[in-house]
Amino acid sequence: MKNNYVTISKNIFIPVTNVCRNRCEYCGFRARSLEDAYIIQMKEFLALVKTKGAATEALFTAGENPELSNLSLFFTKHLIETGSGCSSLIEYTKDLCKVAIKHGLLPHCNLGVLSREELNELREVNASMGLMLETTAELEAHKNSPGKIPTERLKMIAEAGKLEIPFTTGLLIGIGEKLRDRIRSLNAIKSLHDKYGHIQEVILQPFVPKPSTAMWNKKPPSFEELREVVRAARAILPDEIAIQVPPNLTSAKAIIELGASDLGGISEKTMDYINPESPWPKEEELRRIIAPSELRERLPIYPRFIKMGWYSEEIRPLIERYADEEGLRLRRKEGI
User: Fold this and answer.
1) What is the pLDDT of residue 4?
2) Residues 168 and 201: beta-carbon distance below 8 Å
């Protein structure tokens, strides 16, 4: 059943590290040299979570398997320098999640392809988790990216379902795939959800060319292409799966009219580190854009998973603090 509102989440965007084993030809996030590589230090992280403002979500992203990248020695050295005593990205991010929870933030981790053991390790300290499928097609843009093998990504999404982790996935539109590939990708997501019931949202994200990448001169998808895939997604996916479009990358109102129901996370404190050239719109701006639809705030875990109890005891106090009877964020006048 279609809701009469559109949702957003308010987050703090935490790029744990930009060291990554993949070398996707469109990615501007991955560190290409020692000069631009980093791993977030605890002092820097604490400054973000202590000044979180109205945010309820800590969105953790990172390069995939930095321990296996060409900058692995940099990553290992600087991980030691954090003083955390951690020996891996997963271990360090778990510690950061625990700190985020203490400061009133519900973690959502998107760290690339993870094993079942790693998913299970992070499950207790996450409200939801995610991995962009991107596409089921084998593409030139992924020729140097071992983590972008479609079967491996589908396997991880399935493992998340087996572990009852509320999950976000999505497609990256315009990186060399065809319409038939987008249809196959959506059907693959549907098949996994039909089996495990864990997909809470599917992001339809347009490719944006980045300077200093192999695809810097490739045209982004047209708005009509994006409209086409939104129509297909709404026809293929069950109604309980939200279709999300990033409001800083496309025209939100026109896409909502086609069936999108979520605008993802926006941040008052941090930028979009994946698309730094595209600033987040302000909440009041979004309200004007989508009118007469109502804008409602949600948590990183969707209402039906709150009702099903798909969360750990570690984050229960925050969910009970923030969620209203519908499972959405308490309105400001009602709560905190």
Assistant:
1) 82
2) yes
